[in-house]
Amino acid sequence: MSPVPSRPPALRHLVAPVAALIVGGMALFAVTPVLAANTTYYVDAVAGADTNTGLDQAHPWKSLGKINSTTFGSGDRILLKAGSVWTGQLWPKGSGVSGSPIVIDSYSTGNKPRINGAGGVADAVRLFNQEYWTIRNIEVTNTVPASGTPGANLGDFRGIHVSGDNSQTLDGFIIDTVNVHDVSGQVNWIGGDRADNAPGITFQTGWDASKRTGGIVFDTTVPNIGAPPANPTILNNVVIQNSTISNTSFAGIVVKQYTGSNSGAVSVGWGTRANAGDTNFKPHTNFVIRNNYITQAGTAYGCNGIYLTDVRGATVERNVVDKTGTSGIETYFADNVTIQFNEVFGTSQKAGGADSNGIDADKATTAQTIQYNYVHGNGDGILLCQFAFGNVVLRYNVITSNTRYQIYLHSDSAASAKIYNNTLYNDASNYLIYGYGTYLSSSYAISNNILYSTRANATISTSSSIAYSHNLYGGATLTRPSGEPGPVVANPQFVSAPINAPSGTAATGPALAAAHELQVPSNSPAVNAGVNVTSNGGRDYVGNTLYNGTADIGAFEQPGGTPVPPTPDVMRHTFDALATGTLASGTDGLTVNSAGGSVAVVAVPSAADKSVRITRTTNSGSTSVSQTFGTPLTGTVTIETNVMRESAWVSGNDYFAIPYIRGSNGVNAVSLAMTKNNIQAYSGTTLVTIGSYTPGRWYNLRAVISTVGQTFDLYLDGVLVLDNSTFRNALPAVAQIDYYANSSNFGSVVIDDIAISVAA
Q1: Which of 261, 304, 437, 715 has the most beta carbons within 10 angstroms of its beta carbon?
Q2: Cis peptide before 17, with omega less than 30 degrees from 0?
């Protein structure tokens, strides 16, 4: 089971003795004593007044100033009314504690509450020397209107900025379901030629002054650059998820550490890295960036989708990165980073940037794993640019239709790369794998890849330090590396090429299944023609187990027997594109049963962010929304849902499954429910109350299920509440999820943003 940042002390089936904590207004259980007062504050920009108590919806506060002048404590919630707009900066004070963060969220229905920095503040939302905060369900923007001079409106601006300078480790940040857009940040480059400076664009600014504006920025600094403290400030356990970041410059998401490079500064070297064991290197730790949609289609100054630097231990997964500049996902001065299940497309050169790649493992990056990504239609597909030193594994990716190099070899001689079992489909360039000069002196092991080109003699670079082995060369005539062991020259027999499926969007998530068109049949020359690789990750692009016989060539391993269409890595139901009204059975692959009530698409929380309401009114049949998997899901199956009850329970029966998770026998193995003002789950055969819920508030439930270990973890709003719990009944594979009520369980529940993912 994958670890998740901001993980509280493990709860082995809620080990006794337990005491109640409140997280985001919900009573959780932990092995620590009861914490602070856990107060909820309401803020309404229209009907509020700062002289009110703020303690209920009838007496809300009004201004950002009131929030900013208040020091909050663990478990407190700051709820901003939907539809409200504030101009200025949101900077509440105080810190939460582990297991009981301070939460910024919304209440009521309508558009997300909006914080508009309007270019009057550097950071529209700011946290500084604070920890254990969760920010969700808000809209953030910070832009100066454009003038007649392009770039003249750019400045030192950010949307959400988390920083500090107190020489402590600051823990526990969750940014969830936010919409950050139109931040007019300046573009400062580390190097380059000052002769190319232009309004809003500056070259040779050095490490600390560069690349630290954009939508969401996590960085740290020092109180006095001329007399820095002995120890850095480190950010630890950060999750950025389920959010949309659009048209923000310099970047969508930035992570950086201070190093002391500016004029007048004393160098501390925390953010730069001389070698892999550099003890002065003090990176941030444990970042997860997942399920986000990042686009810079509407700005000429967006130069990175995700710029992840000065980090040790990070996962970047299941993001859509659309039409950014320079690099879709870039790591730099980083260690132990996994980049997986992302779709990156449309990257181009912007604002003086020299690159236009989908994914880049850049300078001084070690233990980088780039796997299971769909990278298409960029300038370069994957750039390996490990200047100074580094090591990277590039495997089981589908890389297609990039206009310059599908894979660009650009690392220094001290770096090494293992490049295996990727499928490259080139129909837009004269290059497949390209490098030049001294950058070909790095050690590259290139094996089991399908190298297919519709253009004859597309370049495949060679050198004495590049070892090609067991690759398949297909399409037009290609000049193969001489002396390669086990090459295959043949048509791989793609199912359908070129790929015609649509790209991912904010509503759909990454369109990883589009790349399934480049699968091959069981009689393909690619099958059983590769060389087995140790420590290979255990699965192929779609989740098939490695190996079925000898390794296949390319990103897809034959599962054996009659090939069947594989289950997509991610299935997502957002409901946003559906018309409001009755949800018809079969829509988006869902089975709907309206007996005893109704199932309808509703404009909650807004017309642009719809959900489904399951309502039960009579004791007849069952009312449900379910998804059944033709091929049951095995391995690690993650099921995530946003859920809300709109009114409190008063009397009578009241049990809504959110969801039931069943095997092929139809028996419930994992049971999650909202019932009588509580959220409950079965841990084994014991029904456990996880916490209470507040009507009108959205909650995120994520069950991480291991069909191998026969256990599951349960997260509530990103916090682990059940750890390694056993199933209610045996579950060899997940065959169905069912949001369900029957009998006289009258009332309603609202569900949204259902996501199902599968990993080996």
Answers
A1: 304
A2: yes
